[in-house]
Design brief:
This protein is an alpha/beta fold. The protein contains 15 helices and eight strands. The two termini are 36 Å apart.
Length: 363
């Protein structure tokens, strides 16, 4: 669909009279405020853009583009449209306190359109929002500054790996230099946002020890604070990823292709990513990890579980510091609902937006 066709679409249907099928009760139930909070808490997931020009081998988009070339084009309705869509949802669920843009290509929107969006959002929505799916190819300091000033409190960017060869296997058309630059740009705004999230894919059996060391050293030197979102590589039969692994590395594909992408092998190499998300260890300790912990063979499940627990605590503290509870759902969301009804979240947001509006560093 073109931008003009997207502009004519009705808004997503969040009507309070919609129903969902509840497996536990074997019946249909109304999607009321209680049901919404069980799933999403006080957060709204929304997508502004469609399409993606990238053909990353681990992503479905490489197949989409092979079927429909126009899917490579970033398409989106006007800034006024997306603002009005958000407002239409807020009328039905006024308790919503965070907006999460889960687009693949929001950062690819032109600066002029983003500026129009930012001005409308800061004046008419005035809620903190989260920017997911940012790509290093589209990040500029001007765009990040613009979004931060209008209320973006979080950025998530795909790094995937710091090895040129691994990026080639992933068909990730970006450079290490551009990744470094994007990380540096986001770090410039660390005092206004929660620790940014960087995606990294592990369990890439075709990488060498030297490539793992190269990757880990780059992670170690990244500006802090940050959070690493870790994923275990999944290989689907006949996918571009499988083809690239065979052609570029000449490795045999493991028989066990289908697995949970969030269940990592608890090797020292993988566990060290949790450690680096929590603290920056002394150089001598890190050198020991580089020397003895990059074979990626033996697993230490108990140590891995403990480090992941500490990692989640560190991640939670980073969110609490910025009053970002967009990740909370279920029964815990009733605590947030109390903060909303008591006016605490509103007071904090008003203070934050006033501070952003008058912050000289963001002008």
């Amino acid at each position: 669909m073109t931008n003009e066709e997207l502009e004519r679409l009705p808004f997503l249907d969040f009507d309070i009279n919609n129903k969902y099928f509840d497996i536990k009760s074997n019946s249909f139930r109304i999607i009321d405020k209680r049901a919404y909070m069980q799933w999403l808490g006080l957060n709204l997931n929304i997508i502004w853009t469609r399409g993606c020009p990238n053909k990353c081998a681990y992503c479905y988009n490489s197949t989409f583009i092979s079927q429909h070339r126009d899917n490579a084009k970033i398409r989106y309705p006007s800034p006024h449209y997306i603002i009005d869509e958000i407002k239409s949802v807020l009328k039905i669920y006024p308790m919503i306190s965070w907006i999460s843009f889960i687009d693949d290509g929001m950062m690819a929107i032109s600066y002029e359109k983003l500026r129009e969006f930012a001005e409308l959002y800061a004046n008419e929505i005035k809620l903190p929002f989260l920017t997911y799916g940012t790509h290093p190819n589209y990040i500029t300091e001007e765009k990040i500054r613009l979004l931060v000033k209008s209320g973006s409190i979080f950025f998530r960017m795909g790094i995937q790996n710091f090895s040129e060869k691994i990026l080639q296997v992933y068909n990730r058309k970006t450079s290490i230099e551009l990744i470094d630059k994007s990380v540096e740009i986001i770090a410039k705004f660390r005092e206004y946002i929660t620790p940014p999230g960087y995606d990294i894919i592990l369990d890439n059996f075709f990488s060498t020890i030297s490539e793992r060391r190269e990757h880990l050293e780059k992670v170690y030197n990244m500006p802090r604070p940050f959070i690493i979102n870790l994923h275990s590589l999944r290989i689907f039969p006949a996918s571009l990823l499988e083809i690239n692994i065979k052609n570029i590395t000449s490795e045999n594909i493991p028989k066990s292709r289908d697995k949970n992408l969030l269940h990592l092998r608890m090797t020292v190499f993988n566990i060290s990513h949790y450690l680096l998300s929590i603290i920056k260890p002394a150089k001598r300790i890190f050198n020991l990890i580089l020397k003895y912990g990059c074979d990626d063979i033996k697993e230490y499940n108990l140590l891995g579980t403990f480090m992941r627990f500490l990692f989640l605590i560190r991640r939670g503290l980073g969110n609490i510091y910025r009053m970002d509870f967009s990740f909370i759902s279920g029964n815990l969301s009733y605590i947030l609902y109390f903060l909303k009804k008591a006016g605490i979240l509103k007071l904090y947001n008003e203070y934050t937006f006033y501070k952003l509006k008058n912050e000289k560093k963001l002008i």
